[in-house]
Design goal:
Blueprint: H1 2-17, E1 20-25, E2 28-35, E3 38-46, H2 49-56, E4 61-63
Parallel strand pairs: 1-4
Antiparallel strand pairs: 1-2, 2-3
Length: 64
């Protein structure tokens, strides 16, 4: 039972981490948010990948 609880906590943590993503579009890094089973653009953009990662707390940037 204890092992199951630990696994669930880890999964929830990973889920919360992936709710924001930095996506490079035309040289700018746009922030996308996970909503209702899909991704929607928040309208927030950054000029560098490092700045976007620092502000959103994500671990990497994606490019289309």
């Amino acid at each position: 039972m204890r092992k199951l609880r630990k696994k669930r906590a880890k999964r929830d943590k990973l889920f919360f981490l992936s709710t924001l993503r930095c996506v490079e579009i035309d040289g700018e890094f746009c922030v996308f948010e996970r909503k209702d089973g899909g991704w929607s653009e928040t309208g927030i953009t950054y000029t560098t990948c490092e700045e976007c990662r620092r502000q959103t707390g994500t671990d990497r940037c994606y490019s289309l």
